[in-house]
Amino acid sequence: MSAAGQKIGQDIMQEPVVFDRRSFRDALAAFATGVTVISTVRDNGERIGITANSFGSVSLDPPLVLFSIAKRAHSLAGFLHAPRFAVSVLASDQGAVSNRFAVSSGEKWDGTDYSIAENGCPIINGALASFECDRHAHHEAGDHVILIGLVRRFERLATGEPLMFFRGSYRALAPNAEFPDYAGNEPKVLPPLNGFDPWTSG
Ligand SMILES: Cc1cc2nc3c(=O)[nH]c(=O)nc-3n(C[C@H](O)[C@H](O)[C@H](O)COP(=O)(O)O)c2cc1C
Q: Does residue 45 form part of some domain?
């Protein structure tokens, strides 16, 4: 990097970032995601869960995943104290579940269709996939805490469509007009572009 480039970089690091918060959120919302419920259980048996679209894969070996939780979330202390958590990847017909776990209240699990996973955490029945994790690490990051989980066990459904979140609304996957060969009713997997595999290229 040029000397001028370094100077700009340093300035950016040192000066407070000032821009419109709403615009920033809107720009972030252009990144379409799936939706998960992340759950754990307190020592007293109380179940905890939040809707999160910050879930992401981190590492294959060891198998690591992450999500970030707002410091203001009521569940934060529970997640930081618990040695384990679980992730349920919601299906397209589980928007009501997402809404239920996106509000702060103790009533989230009443009336929710769930099971207790082998690691003791509740998982949402009908989820496309679930991951049972040991809490591996946590990192403070601004107004959120990033939690990293070591996946001990996972399950997935062979079929089913995901609940998507885009520009602040739930969405559904649609066939991509650029790939008409894949516009059939059968669920089909697009080949990685130009054979690119994000996990093996390097
Ligand atoms: C689609 C969607 C995604 C969300 N993703 C996150 C997230 O990644 N992290 C987070 O802290 N809150 C996220 N939220 C908000 C929490 O679900 C919400 O604040 C919840 O009330 C927290 O519960 P608690 O206060 O009982 O802990 C999301 C909400 C929605 C609707």
A: yes
Q: Kindly give the distance from the C-alpha atom of residue 59 to the centroid of ligand 1, in angstroms, as a whole number.
A: 24
CATH code for the domain of 88:
2.30.110.10
Q: What is the pLDDT of residues 75-104, one digit of tens each?
A: 999 999 999 999 999 999 999 999 999 999
Cβ 147 under 6 angstroms from ligand 1: no
Domain containing residue 130: 21-173
Residue 30 inside a domain? The answer is yes
pTM above 0.85, yes or no: yes
Q: How far is the CA of 44 from the centre of ligand 1 (A)?
A: 23
Nearest by Cα to 159 from 93, 67, 63? 93
Q: Assess contact for 86 and 119: CB atoms under 8 A.
A: yes
- Going from the C-alpha of 174 to that of each of 20, 142, 171, the distances in angstroms are 32, 35, 9
Residue 8 lies in a domain: no
Q: Whose CA is nearest to atom 7 of ligand 1?
A: 52
Cβ–ligand 1 distance for 70 under 6 Å, the answer: yes
How many domains does the chain divide into?
1
